[in-house]
Design a protein that fits this description.
Elements lengths: L14 H16 L5 H9 L14 H11 L11 E6 L2 H7 L5 H9 L2 E7 L7 H4 L13 H25 L3 E5 L4 H8 L6 E9 L15 H4 L4
Antiparallel strand pairs: 1-2, 2-4, 3-4
Helix pairs in contact: 2-7, 3-7
Keywords: Flavoprotein, FMN, NAD, NADP, Oxidoreductase
Cofactor: FMN
Enzyme class: oxidoreductase
Length: 225
C-alpha cells in the first residue's frame, strides 16, 4: 500500500481535498458494486440493436446521458470527446448521404443517432479542465500527439456513452459503415471536431434480434503476468 505521506504528486491538504476523500468513502459505504441485474443490463445480457420502436427519446434524457458519461476518466482530464445527437428530420437528411446503403434504414428508424466525435484541439481547454498544472505544452507544437490523444480518449468517452445509455434504460446500436469525411463536411465544417463512430439510441424493436455471437474465453484473450 502506498504511504500517503510519500504518495506521488500529493496535493496540499485542503478542505476541497478532504471533501473529495470523504465523498469516495461515503460512496463505498453506500454501494460497493453493481448487483447481478445491473451487470446484465449493461454488459452480459445487453445487445447491439438494428431496428427501433417509435418511442421518442426526450432531450432531457440526452442531457442526463451526457452528464453521466462526462464523469468517466480521460488522460489528464482532457475530455476530447464531442457528441452530436441527430434527431430532427433535417439533421437526419444531412447524415443519411454519408452512410453505406445497408445502414440507412437503421439510422432512419432510430429516434437518435449520436455522432461520437473528438476534438484534436482539446488541449486549448486544459487551463479549465486541468487547472492545477498547465500541460498545453505537450500538444501545442505536436499535432500528431494531440490527434492521437484525442482519438484514444474520445473513443473511451464513446464507450462511456454506450454504458451510460444502457444504464439509463436506452438501447444502443454502435456503427461503422459510413464516410467520416462526409460526416465531417456535413456537421463539422469550419471546426476542429472530427468524427469517430456513430451510435443509434432509442428503444429497440426486439423482433430484429438474432442469436448472440461468440466471445473469446478468458484463456484466449487474457494473460496473467
Amino acid at each position: 500500500m502506498t504511504d500517503l505521506a510519500t504518495a506521488p504528486l500529493a496535493p496540499p491538504d485542503t478542505p476541497e481535498r478532504r471533501a473529495a476523500q470523504a465523498a469516495v468513502r461515503e460512496l463505498r459505504a453506500r454501494i460497493a458494486r453493481l448487483d447481478e441485474n445491473g451487470l446484465d443490463l449493461i454488459f452480459r445480457e445487453a445487445r447491439s440493436h438494428y431496428a427501433w420502436s417509435s418511442r421518442p427519446v426526450p432531450d432531457d434524457l440526452l442531457r442526463r446521458l451526457y452528464e453521466i458519461l462526462r464523469m468517466g476518466p480521460t488522460s489528464g482530464n482532457g475530455n476530447p470527446g464531442r457528441f452530436v445527437f441527430v434527431r430532427s428530420p433535417e439533421a437526419k437528411a444531412r447524415l443519411v448521404p454519408c452512410l453505406n446503403p445497408r445502414n440507412v434504414a437503421k439510422v432512419e428508424s432510430a429516434p437518435v443517432t449520436a455522432i461520437v466525435a473528438y476534438d484534436p484541439e482539446f488541449w486549448r481547454h486544459l487551463p479549465f479542465l486541468h487547472p492545477h498544472k498547465d500541460t498545453r505544452d505537450k500538444f501545442v507544437d505536436n499535432p500528431v500527439r494531440a490527434r492521437d490523444d484525442a482519438l484514444l480518449n474520445g473513443t473511451l468517452q464513446g464507450a462511456y456513452l454506450l454504458i451510460a445509455a444502457r444504464a439509463l434504460g436506452l438501447d444502443t446500436g454502435p456503427m461503422s459503415g459510413f464516410s467520416r469525411a462526409k460526416v465531417d463536411e456535413a456537421f463539422f465544417a469550419g471546426t476542429s471536431w472530427r468524427t469517430n463512430f456513430l451510435c443509434n439510441l432509442g428503444y429497440a424493436d426486439e423482433r430484429a434480434i438474432f442469436q448472440r455471437l461468440p466471445r473469446f474465453p478468458f484463456e484466449e484473450a487474457c494473460r496473467l503476468a
